[in-house]
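Input for the complex:
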Amino acid sequence: MSSDIRKWFMKQHDKGSGTASKTAVPEKPSPPSSEKPVIRVDTSQENSGRRKTSKYFIASSTKEASSQEMVKEKKAPIKTPSKRKIQNSNEETPDDIKPTPIKKKFHKVDDDEDDFVPASKEKKPAEVKPTKKIKSNSNIEITRNSDKVDDNLEGEIDEKDTGTPLKAGPRDKGGRGPVAVAAGRGRGGGRGGGRGGGRGGYMNFGERKDPPHKGEKEVPEGAPECLAGLTFVISGTLDSLEREEAEDLIKRHGGRVTSAVSKKTSFLLADEDVGGRKSSKAKELGIPFLTEDGLLDMIRKSEPARSSKQEEQKKKTLERMNKPKINISPHKVEVKKDQSASSGRKDAAKSVKPGISPDKRKCQYGDHNSLTWTEKYRPKVPSDIIGNQSIVKQLHEWLMHWNENFLHSSSKGKGKKQSDSASKKAVLLSGSPGIGKSTSAKLVSQMLGFQAMEVNASDSRGKADAKIGKGIGGNTSNTVKELVSNVALNSSMNWSKHPKSVLIMDEVDGMSAGDRGGVADLIASIKVSKIPIICICNDRYSQKLKSLVNYCLPLNFRKPTKQQMAKRLKQITEAEGLQVNEITLEELAERVNGDMRMAINQLQYMSVSQSVINYDDIRQRLLSSAKDEDISPFTAVDKLFGYNGGRLRMDERIDLSMSDPDLVPLIVQENYINYRPTSIAKDDNGVKRMNFLARAAESIGDGDIFNVQIRRYRQWQLSQSSSFASCIIPAALMHGQRETLEPGERNFNRFGGWLGKNSTTGKNLRLLEDVHVHFLASHEAKSDRETLRLDYFTLLLKQLTDPLQVMPKEIAVQKVVEFMDTYSLSQEDFDTIVELSKFKGHPNPMDSIPSAVKSALTKAYKQGSSSRVVRAADMITLPGLKKAPKKRIAAILEPVENGLAEENGEALAENEEEGSDSEDDNDDGISTENAERKPQLDLLNNKPKGIQVQLDLKSNGKSNMKKTPASKSKGGSQAAAADKGSRKRKR
DNA sequence: CAGCCTCGAGTTCC
DNA sequence: CTCGAGGCTG
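Predicted:
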């Protein structure tokens, strides 16, 4: 760290302090909500002075010899919020605050800075801090410019600035990225930073950056409720806290954090003026800005004594929360039922509210503690279900109209049903677990007077059983069958009429775990069923259920919002006499991922040991259970690249990418091009995107290098770097909305192309080998496989398809068949040739051929096949293998009757030979048959046959041989000789 | 009590 | 950006 810069900075700082007096700091940290403190109100240009830096960064800046001019150039807008803040606190805040800024900074300063740290400690904090700032500033401008592409506040100045130090820019960027990452994850970052720095800065995440002073500030402990009633919106990068940390902090102190700025927002928490929507909107709405330091101060100040006002407010809110009593009391149900079923639940709740007294509630719930809360507070009426009311309504409607739609019209109205796609015969409820799918199904059917037959499909496995037939009881699936079909039979009988039944199939996706049979069976049941069927599954897009959704009315349950859940949880906790903060409940709701059941269980569990639950309890308890969902490589990539990909924490990203370290990179590599990065907000000509793409590609390439090191030299410790380079960085760069690059492409992550290609390569090789063998067997040419593919295929394709396109059908077909026979190509070979000759942009020659011609060709070839004798190595069976049954051969021979009259010319001579061979091998019956057909056979086989084989074209693989090896070997040489002769003739 | 407004969360997949 | 939920007001 060069001392002149430091000196310069001091000077600079003194200058700056004069201008900084504009901002005001609130006297009180957390004022009552009525008068919002203006922590920082400035919309002026100086906002653009950013305080984005880190110690690493500084080091790099000096190393990089960022020029003095550059620094100087930047000095004008140096003032940064935090600096002002500190100064202000010096002037205006009591002493107890002062130490913190000092302390917070130098926890882990680099070694080379240590020498001056103690000295500066004695000075005013303001003087210390800027040291960093100045440098950072010079860098920041550069960094930011590329980091924050959509920053419209970024003025011409910035443009110019970046322009000048062109060389420094990218490097800084690069240096910064890895470092930031490393800092975020803990240790081991330094070296990575060096490398990344050298690599041209692909590590720019294009999204939230790490706080410059991460972990350097001491997080204060304030009064638990000191932020109650305040709503915060976090924007941009804070000084020392990760966004999550800040959120946590606020929530722990009773504050609320939302994602969007609205009128309810109390503060916009931002350390810098990110020129984004949030801050502009905040300005519009007059919402005060709050820096991180401001927030910390607020919390700190609250500690000694909470302001009475807050208490009051808190109490008020508590009271407010108390008022809406439990919705679930039987009372309410009654009332609810009185009203028409369709009436909204809002009014019902409202009308009931006053009627319920606390005591009532108590005796309602207090009596039997044996019941688990999940049971106790299970919704009793459909409208009790949290969230998804519209879905419940749809379900209700569907069920209500089911009978008229399907039962009445069952005799006449099948057509109507099919035409009316809206009325499917079944519904498919989908959504993550615990959000009330089965509850809704049950409640709705109960409410409509249906008798619910609940079947958990996962324990009724076995399609075989289902096949046994209807009416065999004992097994669930059979019961289902019985139920469905019996009702069908008895639809007019009393049993099914009066207590209407509904079948609820739970966990449909579990049902078909092994095979698709379960679902197929279910579909069959749906088709037949005379009772409504409600299917429930967890994810609708599972492959297994693909066929099912066609028959179902899909209803997608969403996670209830955390507010909704918190509300209900609040009721429960109150009923149970549990003291829980509302924010805490929201957090709980979030942590359990919308799973009401789990939330309640957790609550009950915690209630055993404590009667007051606060934020940290939830945090600790549920921290580990955060990820329980198993993720496939696909979902992992989805998440990484999703529009929310930027919000993932680094460890989450690593978890995702490590979920399948082999597959995820492949999928990433296959799909990253398809994403339109959100970080390039407005990208007029796509240049930025291209840049990002290039960087992503480069990173993927690096990942490959890592991978080689890992695999070849067993450097397993590199695996994290590998997944970093090959997954996380590309994802960080490119995450955004997926778009299709070609019309008609499914907008879905493709499977890793490599694997697919690998397997198609294998397959194609096999196919090619088949062709090759046949080709060689024709003795028309001897080439190796590659030559065949490269030199012959084009011609073969031409020969095979051109006639079909230009010549009259009959002749063409005949010609092609002839050609195929000449080269002893089977029809599969034909397909292979067409397939392997396909190239993008080249028209498939088969496309222009009328299907009539195609079928004629097939037919002709098949006809020929019965008599065709193909000599091919893959046609030979070993003696041990059984011969084809006679019947089959007969059948094959059968249709030969009327084909190929024309071809007859040449090969008579060989026929004798062939015939005799065949006869030798075959049973008598066949031989006679063969003998009868001989003339035709001859016509077909204009080549001499060494190995003579009846080829069943339809099933080449299992085609039956009628040839012993002996005869083959004997015939082989003959065939070769004769073949040549005939060929020549033919040509 | 019904419609409008505002807030907040979610956003794909045939 | 769009949709649902909830709250407010005429």
